[in-house]
Structure formats: C-alpha cells, structure tokens
C-alpha cells in the first residue's frame, strides 16, 4: 500500500457535515432546464432579419498552397455582398486569437496555404444565402500547388519526412513547446533500476485521432449596433457568439483582439457553445464574422460551416513505447517511456494537451507511482490532416495502467493488486475507490487469469480495472459578485461559454447551502456584458468556482443577518437564514422575508490552494470494465462498466454522475469504433459524418454503474473535486480484451479486424 | 442545399413523365436523398425533385394469398411491425427493423431502401473530392485506398463498393419481384452498380411495389459495428422457397447483394452445425479480399453459418 495523503480542508465551512441542499437531487437548475427543454440557443440557432451568410474557400487537397486566385466572376454573381481574399489588408493584419498558453508558429487568419483538406484558405465570401456563397466559391478560379502531406505523427518524425512548417523548424517536424527537441525527464537511475528488476518487458500503445466536437457544426453570428450610450467613442457595439471555452470569454477576446476594440464594446449573444470541451483551436469564423459585418455597415453576418468541416479539430494521435522493469512481487522499479505525440496542423495546438502539465504526460503519470527510476521522453510533431486540440483522454495514466496490466499478466497477478502496490498515494482516495468499486463491480467474483474464461454463448470473457486522477486544478481566482436584490433573491452573474459541465447549477446549490436559501431563490445568471468574469483557463468550475462562491455567500449571509437582527431587535447571533427567511433561532415561527429589506452585495475574488498538476493528485478514481469477445467475428461488447470516482464532495449528483456516464460512453466509443480516417493517397478526410465516424448510439451505450466516493480530499468547496478529463481513455477496454483473449492489442480502437488478427484468425 | 423545383406527383404516370425529363430525382422518405443533396454527392445536382408521398395507395401492405404486395412507399417501421409480414416474410420484417435507427425507419420507405446509393466513402465524400468511376471518373479510388468496408468478391462495373441495403438480401432470398412503372424485375437482378445508382432503374422509371412470396421460414442477420444507425459490414438472409429449398443471400460483400449458391448447396440435405459451417466456408471459398478487408471474410463466414442455424432453429 502506498502513502497517506494528509489534507486539511481550508476555507469557511469546508468541513461542513449538515448538508441540506448540496448533494441532493431534483434541482432543475437553469442551465440544465435550458438544455434539456431545448430552450437553449446555440450559435446555429441565431438569426436576424437581413442576415447575410459567409463561407470560406476550402482546400480540396491534403496540403496545398494557392498559386493564383481569380475572384472576378465570383464578385459579379448577383447576391454577393463582399468577397475578401488573403491579400486584404485588414485581414492580413488581424492577429490570430491566442486562446491561452503558448502557441508557436500560428497560421494566419486567412492565408494562402492550407494545411489540411477542408482548411479555410484564400478567400471568404459574404452573400445573401448559403447557396449563393457556394456558387460564388465555385466561381473562384484557384490554381493550387499541391504540397506533400503527412497524416501520422510517427511518419512526420522519420528522417526524410517532408518539412511541413519550415518557418517553425527548418530541420524537422518536431515543434511546439519541445522547441525542436524531445522533452526528457528522469528521476533516479533507470539503467540501474532495470538491473534490479526480475522481469523486463516492453509494451506499446497507440491511439488514432479522435473527434470530440461533433454535436454542433460551428456557426458564428455577429452584427454591430448602437451601444446603450449612443456610441460616445464613435464605435458601435459588436455582438458575437461563443465558440470556445478557452478562454471563458473566447468570442469577446477574439473580436476585440481582431478589431482592436475594447472588450466592453463586444457582447456575447448566447452562453451556449455545445460540447466543444477543451477546444483550443481558434475558430476563424469567430474572428471573421465581426470583421465582415463591420465592413458591411454592421449587418448581421453568419459564418457557417458544415458538419464535415467541424472535424477540423481533433484529439491528437499519441503513441507510447514503454519498457518496464519489475520485481517478482509486482513492484515497479524502472520505467523507460517514449511518447510520440501529434500537434497537428496550423502548428502547435496538440502540445497544449501537455503544456500545462509542465512534465510530459508519460512522466506525469509514472511520477504518481512509487517507482524510483523513471526516464521519460516525449516528441511532438506537426502533421496535416486536422488541427489538434486538448486531450480529454488521460494519456498521462494510460501507459501507467498498461504497465500495471503487463506486470499482472506476466506474474499472473490481479491487476487491482498491482495498482495498489505501485501507486504512490493510496490513502484515503484510491483505497476507498478501489474497495467500493470492486464491491459494486463484483470484481472478486469476476476476476480470472487472461484467456481463461469462456461464456456460455462461446464468447471470451474479460475484465480489467484502471486507476486515474479525479482532476483538481485551481489556476483561476474566481471573481464572484453576489447580490441580494429587493425581491429577496440572490443573484450571481457570470459570463462565459457553457460546455455542458453544469457548473452554474452546482454554484447555485452551494450558495443556497451556505446562505440558508431555497435553491430557487438563488439565481446564477448569464450576463452578456460582464467582462470582469475571469478569463483564464480551468476545467474545475464545478469545484473551484463553487469554493469562491461559498466564500462570497458566507459574507453576504453575514450582512443579511446583521440587517435581520436589527429588524428583530436582537444580535446577529440570535438569527439565522432558513429556507430564504430570516428566522429567530429561539422561536423559529418568527420569520422575516427578505423581500423588500433592501439590497446587499459582496464581491469576492479568490481560489483555494489547490495543488498544481505537477503535485500528486489526492483525489482518484478507479474504472472497471467487463467485456465479451466474439471469437468468430472479433466483435467486442462491453457488458459492464463501473466507475468509482472520488468527487471529494459530490455537490450536484445529477451533474456529477451524469458526467461520469458521459465520459465512459465517450471512452467506449473511442475504444471500440472511433477514429479519424483519411485517404492516405490524397489526405482527404473519409469519415467526416455521423455514419462513418462511429460514436456510440444509445443502443451501444453500455450499462454504467456510477459509484460516488466522497473523501473530502479535493480543493474545491467542501473538499470537492471535478470529473473533467478523467475516464475518457480507451485503454481500459483494451486491458479487458487482453484479459479475455490473453493478448495486448497495441492500437485503439479495438475493431474486429484487430481482434481477429490478435486471435490468429487473419494475418 | 441548393434550390430545386419540388413537384408533388399525384400519379405514377405523372411522376414517371417528370422523372424522365432532364435532371430529376424522386424522393420517397427522403432520409438518404436529402443528405445526398446537402453534401452535393450526385454527379449533377438535380433541378427537380418529384415527391412520391402524394401518390395515394403506395404505402399499403396487401395479402395476395401466396405473396404480399408491398407498396414502395410503405415505411420500414410499418413493415417491421406488420404481423402479416412477420408471419410470412419474417426476414423482410427483421431486415426492415434493422435499417438505420427508429427515427429513420419511421420515415424511410422500402422503395427508398432498395434504391439508395452505395455508402462508399469515396463516392460519398462531398464536393466530388474523388472523381470516382461512378461519377464519370476513370478509376476507383477505394481500390488503392482505404477499402476496409468494401467488396470481398471483386469489382462490378468498375466499382468495389459494398451493397448497403438491409432489405435487399431478404427480398432476394424470399424470391421477391420489384414492380416498376415500366416492368417487373426479379429482385435478384435488380441491384447493380450502375452509374451513380445502385440498381438497374432507368431514368424516369419508378419502383411502385414489391411482391414478396410467402415463405414457411426466413431469417435475417446483420453485422455492424453499432447496434443502431449503422450500415452493414455484412448482412445475410436465408429463406425456404416454395419447394423447401434454402436460398441464401449476402449483402456488404459485393456491389450487389450476392446469392450464395455454394452455401445453398452445402445445406441441401439439411442444416446442421456441420453443414452450416461448411456453407460459410464454401460461400467464402472464392472471396478475393482487398488490401484492407480480409477480416470481412471471417465475419461473413460466421454470419452465413449463424443465419442458417437460425433458419433451422
């Protein structure tokens, strides 16, 4: 067993035990209701009378440069209102939005070189309809210089590979925050460690590009109108739509940066962006739409793309080769891990997956083990194919769990024992997750050695488990403004794109809990022009933001009780807030409504002292998977999925458990079917649609058993932590398949062809 | 989607006459055609769309004694749940119930399903990125490209796409006849890679009905990566004809559904575990996989065996 993590909760009432609202069900919530009822308006839903459509020219080749462009005929087409090319001075001078972190070698907003098939390039047209836009684009005479392309980051790293971005690195395709050289990291002495090992094994794991942004083909809607003050600075107000959650006010940043106007002159029209979680890729339409609208006197302009074109931002390819040394008792003593990772097109996005980890992902994961000797090397390569964005899969832990599985396989051990033996900090979180999860999954009844169990229907049976972090990071100080209005309700504004994490509804419960309000009397609302909302980067709003909201709520409650006490003629200690009423403690029948007692407000900006990712994460999770493998067809069915996730404190169960189900569904699709496929002869995307890119349907969704664990070890309110990226890995299913068939399959997804090959049925 | 003229036909004759003029397409349920138009997949964008939904009586399922007469506009969901179809043409009911998703089946029609174009991703890539032989090009890009879902029995009219209609193997196995505005065609001869079409219909020729002989037992099996809204990697139907002989037809292995005579021969003397397995082996004996789809042979072999065992079950 590993070490014990000592953690002292900080912040007001973080050790609260008497929860009345937090952790309970049946709170519709504003965001939840909006999204479930269909009331939520997404950018694609927005329209105003007179709206014009904008579309960009798209490259038909895997990689190409414009040699010449003739727009004469296109400009003459009736209904065309504006046609700009990459030579337009304003477009050429527009800075590309830098969402966050560091990006090297960014492509221009609208250049003359397309880095993948479907890339926006060369020209953008605004017309009365989408049909006219398409006709105009067809009339543009383009001469392309077709350039060599590379779709696989391993190929991009080979000597002699075409150099795709010579301005970034003239010598190789290695780019991003590796600065042209691999990131290397070592603790201990790896070779010495291998000499101490009783067993040395090499394992491999790879994954393809995955798409994660399908639900909403992006549209960017923008218009200019008078501001409420009558444009005293001569500048109208620019209305835009959300497009990314990095930063939280992405559209405002994009528009203001692009046009050089102050942020208070830009207003976002809708909070919804729909499942573009961790989408770092700048959306050119978001920056083009306000510019095109301004050029046309402020008329509404809607920049549209097709669903296929929304496959332009994907989770990067990643390939691991891991050499492990371990003792006869399963103790890991040496790790040598090499990771080849993809940054994709437009340069440098995929590295952001790990940019904020400081350490390469493979080192990050193994650092959380007790292994004393670790060497990690990571290389990032630009490719064509598509842009890459952040990685919701936990590739920090995938090689670690693979190593644990290999140890278990070699030594005929139970993998759960190998995990507990080798993870550095096991108490209380991992130990609790493992115990409760194993019980819920009936692990002890189901476990067997690899390849040793055939089901009654002839299929092979396999199970596996894997551990991972429950993400806690708190890089942002949340700026909470809390106000009690004359209507007796509590208001909290925010301003950011909502991606389906339901954090406003969790914040509502925490404020209600701390203040003694009914949840329906706490209104967390979207304030379109609230530029003081934090603009950083965090996936932890459900936990860290609730912490700041709690602190603000405590302060506001104090003010209310002081006012209420004076109305009762008692001291503040003699009154309390109960169900939104100021209540005399000595006689709870005596209550005062908050309605009409005035306005009170507090401002609080802060964050809990959450460890950065480089530190050991205290809150963990363990996932379990049971599969059946059809030996004759290679088809894998997930029979049971179980996740024991340490939420620290589960604030809003419907959101938290729902997010677990979502993450495991996502993981199951990636494990069994999903991959971006190009024609390798041309670089053209083949499966950019919902038939051929095979996300799970509801019938494919496995039974998912969610087991919430609450150790109060997180950094958010009441020790809460998030779900975020945890669980979205494909590797667990692969480990269960290994338990079924006795062989590791080195590449996801685990499709029938790979299973049949592993079974020796095909070559 | 581009603009087009939408005509609501009131008779087959009217639909047929308009369909024969210039560049027209007919629309039944529209579940395939609308996406096709949106993505501009057709070699020439149609200027006229002729709606068949306004023609009365084309959605009926009628019992003719020895056979069922099913209107081309009968919805797949209705066919799947129709008690007469389930009783006498079980394979067709099963196949109709496995097409796409419940939402699509509630709109999609039998006529539309048998006329839908191939799902080859080279053929279907928007904006004619691959000018394939089905659209007037000189080559089939799938042949040297990613052909994991393509034919394992060779080429037909320059195409190696795999047939993707779920109802087709069932109709052929049941010995159905496709009735059009011009003629009657045995289902077995109806399907083919034919320009951008997947059947032998001529311009202006419209499917009106399908006559399906009753069978004492027939079954349908489908293998796909997803349980819903997925086209088959392979599908298979087996049925007893009126003489008690087993008919076996497989889809997803050739541009048209393929009658597996070798499999039929293997079970001539009865279906057992051994003969069913032999039927699968014999059916695949002449398979010629492409660079990326030899796995389909193993799957097809198994699905033939399982279909036959279900027929006997």
Oligomer designation:
heterodimer
Structural class of chain B, please? alpha+beta
Overall average pLDDT of chain B = 96
What are the segments of chain B in which pLDDT stays under 50 over at least 5 consecutive residues? Answer: none
Q: How would you briefly describe this protein structure?
A:
The complex is a heterodimer of chains A (763) and B (313). Chain A is of the alpha+beta class and 763 residues long.
Structure description:
The complex is a heterodimer of chains A (about 775) and B (about 325). With about 775 residues, chain A is of the alpha+beta class. Among the domains of chain A are: about 5-40 and about 475-605, Aldehyde Oxidoreductase, domain 4; about 410-470 and about 615-760, Aldehyde Oxidoreductase, domain 4. Chain A contains 19 helices and 31 strands. In chain A, the strands form eight sheets. In chain A, strands 4-6-2-14-11-12-13 form a seven-stranded mixed β-sheet, with helices on both faces. In chain A, strands 8-18-17-16-9 form a five-stranded mixed β-sheet, with helices on both faces. In chain A, strands 21-29-30-31 form a four-stranded mixed β-sheet. In chain A, a hairpin with a 2-residue loop joins strand 25 (about 575-580) and strand 26. In chain A, helix 11 packs across helix 12 (about 415-420) and helix 15 runs parallel beside helix 16. In chain B, strand 13 and strand 14 (about 260) form a beta hairpin. Helix content of chain B is about 30%, strand content about 20%. With about 325 residues, chain B is of the alpha+beta class. Chain B has helices at about 10-20, 35-40, 75-80, 85-90, 90-100, 100-105, 110-115, 120-125, 140-145, 165-175, 260-265, 275-285, 295-310; strands spanning about 5-10, 25, 50, 60-65, 65-70, 175-180, 185, 190-195, 195-200, 205-215, 220-225, 235-240, 245-250, 260. The termini of chain B are far apart. The interface of A and B includes residues 633, 698, 752, 753 and 763 of A.
């Amino acid at each position: 067993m590993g070490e014990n993590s000592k953690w002292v909760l900080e912040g007001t009432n973080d050790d609260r035990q008497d929860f009345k609202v937090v952790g309970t069900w049946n709170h519709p919530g504003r965001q939840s209701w909006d999204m479930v009822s269909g009331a939520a308006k997404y950018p694609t839903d927005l329209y105003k009378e007179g709206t014009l459509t904008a579309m960009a020219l798209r490259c038909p080749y895997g990689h190409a440069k414009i040699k010449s462009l003739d727009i004469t005929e296109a400009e003459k087409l009736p209904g065309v209102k504006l046609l700009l090319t990459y030579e337009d001075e304003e477009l050429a001078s527009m800075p590309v939005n830098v969402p966050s972190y560091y990006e090297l070698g960014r492509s221009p907003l609208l250049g003359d070189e397309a880095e993948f098939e479907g890339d926006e390039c060369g020209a953008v047209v605004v017309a009365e309809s989408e049909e006219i836009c398409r006709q105009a684009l067809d009339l543009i005479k383009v001469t392309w210089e077709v350039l060599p392309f590379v779709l696989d980051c391993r190929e991009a790293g080979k000597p002699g590979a075409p150099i795709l971005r010579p301005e970034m690195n003239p010598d190789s395709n290695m780019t991003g925050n590796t600065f042209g050289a691999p990131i290397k990291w070592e603790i201990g002495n790896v070779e010495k460690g291998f000499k101490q090992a009783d067993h040395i094994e090499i394992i491999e794991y790879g994954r393809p590009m995955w798409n994660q942004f399908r639900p909403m083909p992006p549209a960017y809607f923008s218009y200019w109108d008078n501001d409420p003050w009558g444009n005293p600075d001569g500048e109208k107000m620019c209305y835009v739509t959300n497009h990314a959650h990095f930063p939280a006010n992405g559209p405002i940043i994009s528009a203001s940066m692009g046009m050089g106007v102050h942020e208070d002159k830009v207003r976002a029209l809708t909070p919804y962006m729909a499942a573009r979680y961790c989408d770092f890729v700048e959306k050119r339409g978001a920056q083009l739409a306000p510019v095109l609208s301004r050029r046309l006197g402020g008329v509404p302009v809607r920049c549209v793309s097709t669903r296929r074109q929304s496959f332009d931002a994907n989770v990067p390819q990643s390939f691991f080769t891991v050499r492990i040394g371990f003792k006869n008792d399963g103790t890991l003593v040496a790790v040598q891990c090499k990771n080849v990772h993809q940054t994709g097109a437009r340069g440098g996005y995929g590295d952001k997956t790990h940019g904020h980890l400081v350490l390469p992902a493979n080192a990050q994961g193994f650092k959380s083990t007790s292994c004393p000797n670790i060497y990690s090397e990571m290389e990032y390569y630009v490719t064509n194919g598509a842009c890459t964005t952040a990685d919701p899969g936990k590739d920090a832990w995938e090689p670690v769990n693979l190593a644990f599985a290999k140890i278990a396989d070699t030594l005929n051990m139970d993998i759960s024992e190998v995990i507990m033996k080798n993870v550095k900090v096991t108490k209380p979180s991992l130990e609790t997750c493992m115990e409760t999860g194993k019980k819920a999954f009936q692990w002890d009844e189901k476990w067997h050695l690899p390849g040793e169990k055939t089901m009654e229907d002839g299929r092979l049976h396999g199970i596996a488990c894997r551990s991972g972090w429950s993400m806690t990071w708190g890089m942002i100080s949340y700026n909470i403004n809390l106000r009690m209005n004359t209507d007796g309700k509590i208001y909290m504004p925010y301003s950011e794109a909502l991606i389906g994490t339901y954090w406003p509804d969790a914040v509502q419960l925490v404020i209600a809990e701390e203040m003694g309000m009914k949840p329906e009397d706490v209104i967390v609302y979207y304030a379109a022009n609230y530029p003081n909302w934090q603009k950083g980067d965090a996936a932890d709003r459900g936990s860290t933001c609730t912490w700041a909201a709690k602190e603000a709520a405590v302060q506001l409650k104090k003010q209310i009780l002081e006012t209420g006490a004076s109305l009762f003629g008692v001291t503040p200690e003699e009154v309390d807030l109960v169900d939104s009423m100021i209540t005399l403690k000595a006689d709870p029948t005596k209550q005062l409504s908050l309605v009409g007692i005035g306005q009170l407000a507090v401002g609080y900006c802060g964050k809990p002292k959450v460890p950065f990712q480089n530190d050991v994460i205290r809150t963990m999770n363990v996932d379990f998977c049971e599969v059946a493998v059809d030996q004759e067809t290679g088809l894998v069915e997930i029979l049971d999925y179980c996740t024991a996730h340490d939420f620290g404190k589960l604030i809003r169960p419907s959101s938290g458990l729902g997010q677990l189900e979502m993450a495991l569904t996502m993981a199951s699709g990636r494990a069994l079917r999903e991959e971006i496929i190009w024609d390798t002869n041309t670089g053209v995307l083949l499966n950019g649609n919902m038939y051929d890119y095979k996300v799970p349907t509801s019938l494919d969704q496995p039974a998912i058993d969610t087991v919430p664990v609450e150790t109060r070890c997180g950094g958010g309110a009441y020790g809460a932590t998030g779900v975020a990226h945890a669980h979205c890995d494909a590797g667990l299913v692969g480990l269960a398949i290994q338990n079924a068939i006795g062989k590791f399959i080195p590449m996801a997804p685990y499709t029938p062809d790979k299973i049949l090959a592993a079974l020796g049925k095909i070559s | 989607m581009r603009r087009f003229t939408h005509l609501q036909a009131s008779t087959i004759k009217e639909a047929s006459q308009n369909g024969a003029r210039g560049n027209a397409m007919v629309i039944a349920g529209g579940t395939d055609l609308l996406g096709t138009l949106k993505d501009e997949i057709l070699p020439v964008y149609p200027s006229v769309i002729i709606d068949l939904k306004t023609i009365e009586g084309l959605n009926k399922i009628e019992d003719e004694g020895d056979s069922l007469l099913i209107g081309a506009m009968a919805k797949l969901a209705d066919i799947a749940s129709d008690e007469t179809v389930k009783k006498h043409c079980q394979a067709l009911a099963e196949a109709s119930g496995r097409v796409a998703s419940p939402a699509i089946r509630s709109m999609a029609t039998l006529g539309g399903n048998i006329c839908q174009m191939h799902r080859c991703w080279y053929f279907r890539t928007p904006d004619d990125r691959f000018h394939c032989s089905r659209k007037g090009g000189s080559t089939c890009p799938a042949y040297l490209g990613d052909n994991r879902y393509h034919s394992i029995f060779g080429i037909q009219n320059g195409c190696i796409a795999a047939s993707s209609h779920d109802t087709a193997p069932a109709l052929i196995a049941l010995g159905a006849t496709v009735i059009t505005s011009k003629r009657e065609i045995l289902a077995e001869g109806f399907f083919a890679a034919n320009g951008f079409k997947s059947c032998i219909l001529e311009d202006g020729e419209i499917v009106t009905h399908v006559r399906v002989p009753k069978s004492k037992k027939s079954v349908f099996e489908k293998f796909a990566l997803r349980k819903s809204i997925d086209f088959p990697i392979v599908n298979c139907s087996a049925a007893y004809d009126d003489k008690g002989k087993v008919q076996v037809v497989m889809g997803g292995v050739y541009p048209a559904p393929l009658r597996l005579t070798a499999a039929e021969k293997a079970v001539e003397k009865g279906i057992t575990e051994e003969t069913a397995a032999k039927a699968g082996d014999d059916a695949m004996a002449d398979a010629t996989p492409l660079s990326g789809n030899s796995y389909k042979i193993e799957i097809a072999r198994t699905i033939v065996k399982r279909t036959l065992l279900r027929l006997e079950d």
